[in-house]
Amino acid sequence: MTLRSEQNGRGVSPTVHGAGVKTIPSAPLALVLGFGNVLLSDDGAGVKLTERLRRELGADAADFVDGGTLSFSLLPYLEATDSLLVIDAADLNRRAGAVALFEGTAMDGFLASTRRRSVHEVGLIDLLDMARLQGCLPPRRALLCIQPCRIDWSETLSTSVAEAMPEAARQAQVLLQRWALL
């Protein structure tokens, strides 16, 4: 007889194996979604930080997804979680390498602001709106942003953004721990 959990839509459902023994449902993993284009220097900071978190925390700590510049095709990932951490380079109107964390309605407000947006931020806004319409917007959600220095053809982060990565990783880890998902 084996006990295991199987994914079922928004979470994990109990399954029966062997002599009628059920597994205990567990919470769905947090979704850590990195946005950006790694070929455009600091624009790829979200994807690179997501990869770093996967290495540091282990692949089983969360559902780490390279969202690249995708949007609507990521909806099934939102449907399967109740905790979403989006990581992206964004214009914070601050010094290069500045890190900011927006949670819940603060995330919604930041995305709705009139500041200049990246193409993938517009895609993220559309994705979240689609999740709202489908009734699957994760109740716990946050946006971790890093102010880019340059967005140009290069696979290397600028010095200021590269130096901000440890602090951004620390903030992401603290948030995930606070959500009690690690």
Describe this structure in words.
- The chain has helices at residues 45-57, 75-79, 105-112, 119-134, 159-178, and strands at residues 6-8, 11-13, 16-17, 21-22, 31-35, 63-68, 83-89, 99-103, 140-146.
- The protein has 182 residues and is of the alpha/beta class.
- It has one domain: HybD-like (Rossmann fold).
- The strands form three sheets. Strands 6-5-7-9-8 form a five-stranded mixed β-sheet.
- Strand 5 (31-35), helix 1 and strand 6 form a beta-alpha-beta unit.
- Helix 1 (45-57) crosses helix 5 (159-178).
Sequence-ordered SSE layout with sheet pairings:
Blueprint: E1 6-8, E2 11-13, E3 16-17, E4 21-22, E5 31-35, H1 45-57, E6 63-68, H2 75-79, E7 83-89, E8 99-103, H3 105-112, H4 119-134, E9 140-146, H5 159-178
Parallel strand pairs: 5-6, 5-7, 7-9
Antiparallel strand pairs: 1-2, 3-4, 8-9
Helix pairs in contact: 1-5
DSSP summary: helix tally = 5
- Give the low-confidence spans: 1-25
Q: Taking all residues together, what is the mean pLDDT?
A: 83
Briefly, what CATH class? Alpha Beta
Number of strands: 9
Protein structure class: alpha/beta
Sum up the overall morphology in one term: globular
Can you name the CATH architecture?
A: 3-Layer(aba) Sandwich
Sheet with the most strands, sense and barrel status: 5 strands, mixed
Task: Give me a quick take on this structure.
The protein contains five helices and nine strands, in the order E-E-E-E-E-H-E-H-E-E-H-H-E-H. It has helices at residues 45-57, 75-79, 105-112, 119-134, 159-178, and strands at 6-8, 11-13, 16-17, 21-22, 31-35, 63-68, 83-89, 99-103, 140-146.
